[in-house]
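This part of the workshop introduces the protein records we will be handling. An example says more than a description, so a record of this kind follows.
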Amino acid sequence: MLKQTIFCVDDENDNLDALERIFRAKYKVLRALSGAEALQILDQYPDPIAVIITDQRMPQMTGVEFLEKSLAKRPDSIRILLTGYTDMESIIAAVNTGQIYRYINKPWDPLDLLNTVNRAVERFNMAREIVQKNQELAKALDELKVLDQAKSQFMILINHELKTPLTGLLSFTELLRETTLNGDQATYLSRIEKSGQRLRELIDDVLLIVSAEMKTLKMTISPFEATKLKVFMKPEVEKMAERKGMKATVALAAKKIVGDEALISQVLARLVHNAVKFGLQGGTISVSSELVKPHRLRLRVFNQGSSIPENVREKVLRPFFIDEDVMSHSSGTGLGLTVCQSILKAHSSRLELSNRDQGVEAAFELPVL
């Protein structure tokens, strides 16, 4: 590690020799016999100067005057004033105009002076580190701004460059349905349609997540009855529930909640889908609500099934999280819970996953009137 530089200014050579003997083992020592000479050295010396130590009573230029002029040249240096006089006015002036770290009376105690300089160097190093960290933060902020612009460009790319050809593809599959197809052709067409629909859902999910993060998600916030929430299942989810012999119950309180009814219904639908996917064979799914505070309603989706390990709960809320042990397979995009979290974040709420009574509960709160 390079030695820090200490600058000693005194009009007496003997004093400079004494100061140099104190500091030279640990620091690089510069010296000057006057304020004018010291200012020239400050202009010419290329490296940082951690501490400037100066005598107060010098001819032509006092220590206070020198330190005041040194501020413009080395604003980061820590300044120490040496004085053989109990001249409080000079000391006060030094503190006010020269930004003095400490003043020390002559004759000084070498150990006390060395300890003072050590602390001053630590302060100098810490200040430089803070400046460096602030510069790194500023650079990181600039990079985030670039990423934010990239998000907008990404949305345009997804919305136009992918959705447009996908719409054309699905339109032509509908036209093919109107033609005469043999058995194999009908099977191939069904698979193309299924893949196309899945891709469209993925694109819509990604757009929703990015829109929510950019705070551009279109929402219609208004009061509505909680009982009007549509807890629906997609056809494939219904078939999965039938195969697993699962039953769902819905019991929502007659409370007027504030939010986007369509988006909150989508959250519940996705949570029910998740509950069906990971629930026990023959298990039950319950959708319920509870007034937890005078103006907050907690909506819950519970399913019987394996508990979620604590270290996995936060991970499953991240985009594209796929885990063989958690999901039991590697299909899917891992966006369902992330979409829920994005929608709820836009409502100033959040999704909470917890293990309850041999099952898993997904819950969130919304304001009520």
